[in-house]
Design a protein that fits this description.
single chain; about 90 residues; mainly alpha; 3 helices
């Protein structure tokens, strides 16, 4: 399971290398348009950049939330098992 997850992360990181350079170019285009007085195109691109920026943070937040939720459930089950075992061995 851990090997599959690690392999998936490595493959996805190599696939997204080309995408990292685009945001800087879009930002430069927006800044040049804003300096020339054409703000409507720049505003739309800025909102698009912010939208694309929020997606990875939401994804990571969802993964962390699920990880803690599953961990809390496993901890509760483990505590219940320890409680049962202590009651069995107490008698």
């Amino acid at each position: 399971m851990k090997k599959a997850f690690l392999l998936t992360v490595i493959i996805l990181s190599f696939l997204s290398i080309d995408g990292f350079s685009q945001c800087a170019m879009c930002r430069a285009t927006v800044e040049s348009n804003l300096s020339e007085g054409r703000g409507t195109i720049g505003t739309g691109l800025n909102f698009g950049i912010l939208y694309l920026l929020s997606a990875p943070y939401l994804l990571v937040g969802a993964i962390i939330f699920l990880w803690f939720k599953v961990g809390k459930k496993e901890l509760k089950e483990r505590q219940e098992l320890d409680k049962r075992l202590s009651e069995i061995y107490k008698n």
